[in-house]
Amino acid sequence: MGDFNLALVIVAIVVCVLVFLINVYLLVNYQHPDDKNQAYFPKFVVVLGLSVASISILMLPADVANRQACQQAIYNGACNLTLPMKDLWLAIYIIDAVLVFFVIPFAMFYYEGDQDKTVWKRMKSALLWVITTAIVCGLVLGILYGLVGKVDFTVRHLSSSTVAFPNNFDFSNSQPCIGNGARECSAYTASPSSETTWTMHATFPEYVVALATIVGSVLFSIFGGVGIACLPLSLIFSFIRRPRAVITRSQYIKEATELGKKAREFKRAADALHQEQKNGSKGRKWRKNMKAVEKELLLLEDDVNALEEMYPQGEKAEATWAMTILGYLAKLILGIFGLIVSIAWVVHIVIYLLIDPPLSPFLNEVFIKLDDAWGLLGTGAFAFFCLYLLLAVIAGEMMIGMRLVFITIHPMKWGATLMNSFLFNVGLILLSSISVIQFCSTAFAYYAQATAAQEIFSHTLQSLRGIKYLYKYNVFQIAFIALAGLTFVYYAAFGWRRKKPSGRFQLSS
Asked: Could you tell me if 429 and 50 are in contact, meaning their C-beta atoms sit under 8 angstroms apart?
């Protein structure tokens, strides 16, 4: 067993190194040319945040593997040689909370600071904002922890008389205890009056993780519910809306001329807003117009990309068109596969979490059977379903952000992503990863039983005073399923339509 534990540690180290290298690769290829050879601190925060989010998702399969390391041990101390998963869970989520609520806001305030100011003034301004946020968060956490930071466990008091030690043991479903009397050792036959509440104070790290999970769960139920439907459907409808043939040169010139006119309109609007900013009139109307310009500009960029796609140019135009068609076929295949995974997720939530008692363990049994076939199959499938849920959250955020004007849009584009957009999306991923892990530990409680994650997220979290009712009545799961159903209906009815930019701006001057 010691060799197995050593192999698990080696695998964990190798995975962490690979995750770090992959995130560096993503940063280098997604970053905007304006950010090359500068903004090193925001880049470090981005790589660190992505690594923490990825590792936190992969820790649940590692927790299951760590549990199996001493499952068949022949001596009692074997489990002492495994990874300290509970300490690692608390550490990773404390780091997660610090990054989301302090480090990433500081990096964003610093990066978006007035470029005319000195570095020290930008750091000072960002630090003041972060200190103010830290004081408010510290007071709120301290007050909540002191007042309601307790765990209420429902227990039953059982007692029985003593009997002589028998010469033989004859146990069955009808007689689970020693003696011929009432089944006094069975908690299921105890009277309701024997129930009582055992109250204890939760540790402060566990309480911080719990509150961060609540915030993440609200975002998860909204973005995840929308994304679980729009992630595969967007790929499928992208194939349905694909260009069927290359347009003519005259059509290309006509469309390009119209897009050029809109681009000039955006330029005039942006110049007017920039002049208002210089004059110090950054009011509510200015912010509204700025978000409208950003939204319309994103839609214009999509139109430009679509036009270039329908009229490939250059010496290898035919090869470019062929790759475009293959890309849409790949989207169709991935969309169908994603739709199957999304349906499996929704069905699993309904029959295992929302129906009491569960109709079937469903995916839990699938993972166990895959483990029986080969240990890494079940763990790999388990990790894939968790990662897919996180991708659904990101897809839902991008879909809602494109339709609600009060949400700042921070798109991620290959080779054209500014650091503030990177930081915003990394913060969202970090915040959502907490609730994704909690949700997965609950949805796959049968498969992930007796793990450190289940102890934190299934026992302590769901017994916290004031919070436990959100989990007792499945508030987040019901919201998730409801939004998934509404999104599916909306996307099936209107998702194939493509809205054109309105080009309307309400400038104040």
From this structure: yes
Task: Tell me the per-residue pLDDT of 350-364, one tens digit each, with 9 for 90 and over.
Answer: 999 888 888 888 888
Amino acid occupying residue 221: S
How many alpha carbons lie under 13 Å from residue 103 in its C-beta half-sphere? 19
- Write the single-letter amino acid at 272: A
Residue 66 Cα to chain centre, angstroms: 23
Distance CA 23, CA 53 (A): 11
- Six-digit token string for 162: 């003593």
Decide if 95 contacts 474 (C-beta within 8 A).
no
Three-state DSSP at 200 gives strand
| Alpha helix ranges (H) inside 1-74 | 2-30, 40-69
Distance from CA of residue 2 to its chain's centroid? 34
Report, in angstroms and rounded to the nearest whole number, the Rg of the chain calculated over CA atoms.
28
Q: How far is CA 336 from CA 235, 343, 487, in A?
A: 8, 11, 17
User: How confident is the model over 219-272, as pLDDT tens digits?
Assistant: 888 888 989 998 999 888 888 888 878 888 888 888 888 888 888 888 888 888
| Structural tokens at position 104 | 């990433």
pTM listed for this prediction: 0.75
The Cα 418–Cα 423 span in angstroms is 9
Instruction: Identify the helix (H) or strand (E) that includes residue 201.
Output: strand 195-201
